[in-house]
Design a protein that fits this description.
By secondary structure, the protein is of the alpha/beta class. It is built from twelve helices and ten strands. InterPro entries: Asp/Glu/hydantoin_racemase (IPR015942), Asp/Glu_race (IPR001920), Asp/Glu_racemase_AS_2 (IPR033134), Glu_race (IPR004391).
Length: 269
Amino acid sequence: MNRIGIYDSGLGGLTVLRALQKQLPQEPVLYFGDTARVPYGTRSAVELLTFGREILTWMGEQGVKMVLVACNTSSALALEQLQREFPWPILGLILPGARAAVQMGRRIGVLATPATVQSGAYPRAIREACPQAGVWQVPCPALVPLIEQGRSHTPEARPIIQNYLAPLLSVQVDTVIYGCTHYPLLDDLMADLLPPQVQRIDPATALVRAAAQELDVLGLKHHGTGGGVRFGVSGFPRNFSRLAQGWLGAIPPVEAVNLPMVQGLPVVD
């Protein structure tokens, strides 16, 4: 059974998994969280490319038919090279998220990791889709650790999020992109702190729509019943399983994966 692979640094990719199960519930999934090396948001392009190669090599050995890179930083810094190196479709979040945003507004705020902000990937993609759009970015280094450590709904979370939203509210954005797959896990707090007229864009939904179209075009859709999810992590399975329970509604079985070392591939800086 060929699965759709999803990988992220940790819990954030669960938002992509959730969108995939909603839109394509029949598809079997292989989910990998690189929890031993979370967060990705301050990593270099060389590191992210190396991590991606290791993960995709392992996924290829498991027989995936498509991979969704459920990490905006990896999508910004490593996706194009990975697409050149591996034989199956590999889709990222930036372009689908940008296209979804310009359908909703013209004053677009992007909350993202420092590396994604520095890459400029979202402003480029947004202006490619709509040259008239204004784009404001805010790096949010504290949010991924907050979520991965299970502190996303503690009293300390609210003022941290308020601080990150303040620059966007000051310029009166009409749309906010969650430029990291972890951030939709904070959507209830975001909704409470943003004006009701501000649209919130989760690129995961747009990514899965693009994946569904690609599966149709390539004739790769699974037509059986629900395929289920196999979970693997590079860190401690028990920690991931415990934290994931709150987002999945059940304790998932999670296996520890020792990633293969990738030898002989050129490093692109």
